Amino acid sequence: DPFIGEKILREGKADFIALGRRLLADPELPNKIASGRLEDIAPCTACLGCIERIYITHEPVTCRVNAALGKEREYEIKAAKKKKRVMVVGGGPAGLEAARVAALRRHEVVLYEREHSLGGATRLAGLVKGLEIEDLVGLTRYLKTQIGKLGVRVRLGKEVNLAVVEEIKPDVVILATGGIPADPEIAGINRGNVVSTPDIYRMVRTYLRFFGARGLRWLTRFWMPVGKRVVIIGGGIQGCELAEFLVKRGRKVTIVEASDELGTEMASYHKIALLRWLTKKGAVWFTGVKCEEITDKGLTIITKEGERRTIEADTIVPAIPLRPNTELFQALEGKVPEIYPIGDCREPHLILEAIADGSRIGRAI
């Protein structure tokens, strides 16, 4: 961290400070510090995606925040040959990055977000993940600052439909409307002891507006709309991180996963550390299972060995991958000169892919 490094230098504890991952996220970091432009520093969110590719998968390096990493010549920002009126729908990472890059290329950009604040799904992710390591709130703050400086007009609390688009008459529409939770096909999924992701988001978004992720994360230590025994359906990155969040709040957690592996899409370093910690804290998981039925007692599963058993629980929480939200795309297709779905709206993935998508389209239009 450059601020810690500066403090160490001023205290005479070191003569030289070297930075690693922070320079992958923002190669211009030293120049920005020297010129006093601290708010323009793209933050490293410590996702370890770069480390994963360099040391584990041996693939070309990528960065969650800096989509141009390793493609600097190809991704050089150049002014557009023709200035266009660009309408971005959705203020999550993909939409914010698309707006930033399009504005850098001198397009006239307006961004619409139906909520009253920017960040999209990262607001809920920040609540679950915490801010001490992966500061997703800081990432949103950086992107918001950049589009503000570039003159992007932001319209919060505005739902976009065909009528709105016809009124604005943009040359380009970029859809970053996110994904839709897909409920698993399990008997009893609509029972009262099931709390879905949309349910959780509806509960917390008002509080997020007033308290922010940091304040609400503190408040959840005292009350949450889940019981003491929780079963999480889905052991991907979302399910594993939710398990950590709940265990830290005194819940007894069981994860059930249809595949044979937990923590898919997690960086290996994070995954190993998290699963060790969950084991130490008494969390339990079952892989290779089939979820059969949700009852008042809990969740009935068929294990990989063919055994039928019921996991007793007060609350069942599905944490399965999203599906693309294509409703607006279908309504607008053929009615605007150019339309591009990006991020989870095109294909649900992680923040890295969302920002890469936004950057790619921002450079292409």
TrEMBL record:
Signal peptide: none annotated. Its cofactor is FMN. Residues 85-356 form the FAD/NAD(P)-binding domain. Gene3D superfamilies: Aldolase class I (3.20.20.70), FAD/NAD(P)-binding domain (3.50.50.60), NAD(P)-binding Rossmann-like Domain (3.40.50.720). The keyword tRNA-binding does not apply. It holds the Pfam family Pyr_redox_2. One of its GO terms (molecular function) is oxidoreductase activity. Keywords: Flavoprotein, FMN, Oxidoreductase. SUPFAM superfamilies: FAD/NAD(P)-binding domain, FMN-linked oxidoreductases. InterPro entries: Aldolase_TIM, FAD/NAD-bd_sf, FAD/NAD-binding_dom, NADH:flavin_oxidoreductase. This is FAD/NAD(P)-binding domain-containing protein.
